[in-house]
Amino acid sequence: VQLVESGGGLVQAGGSLRVSCAASGTSVMTNHVAWYRQGPGKEREFVARIGPGGSGTDYADSVKGRFSISRDNAKNSVYLQMNSLKPDDTDVYYCKMPWRGTDFWGQGTQVTVSS
Fold first, then answer.
1. What 8-state DSSP symbol labels residue 31?
2. How far apart are the C-alpha atoms of 13 and 55, rounded to whole Å?
3. pLDDT of 51 above 90
4. Banded pLDDT at 63 (limits 50, 70, 90)
5. Which residues 6+ apart lie within 8 Å of 56 measured at CB?
6. Pairing verdict, β 57-59 and 109-114
7. To the nearest whole number, what is the mean pLDDT of the chain?
8. H or E element in which residue 72 lies
9. Is the pLDDT of residue 55 over 90?
10. In this structure, are residues 52 and 68 in contact, taking their beta carbons and an 8 Å threshold?
11. Cβ–Cβ < 8 Å for 82, 18
12. DSSP for 79-90?
């Protein structure tokens, strides 16, 4: 299993950005996929999760109403749409997929929100 994030960048506060997680080796349709984020000196924290099939989504309280996680089965990818971004959202964003007892992580994509 390989996960590759992309789409990070620099955006002004209040702006939007969409980051992507492209998977290979297994299907995003049949697995949980989650987004986490981590800044310098901070612990990695949960952001959002999407379940397999139609089993739903959940979000950290800090991003509810601003971020949206979705999946494109044809592209075997999961997306995180981030709106109303704040400087506190500045972090490296990682996707994670647990598969056969192992957590697989991507390399991360940097999101920087300027004030």
1. S
2. 32
3. yes
4. very high
5. 50
6. unpaired
7. 96
8. strand 67-72
9. no
10. no
11. yes
12. EEEE-S--GGG-
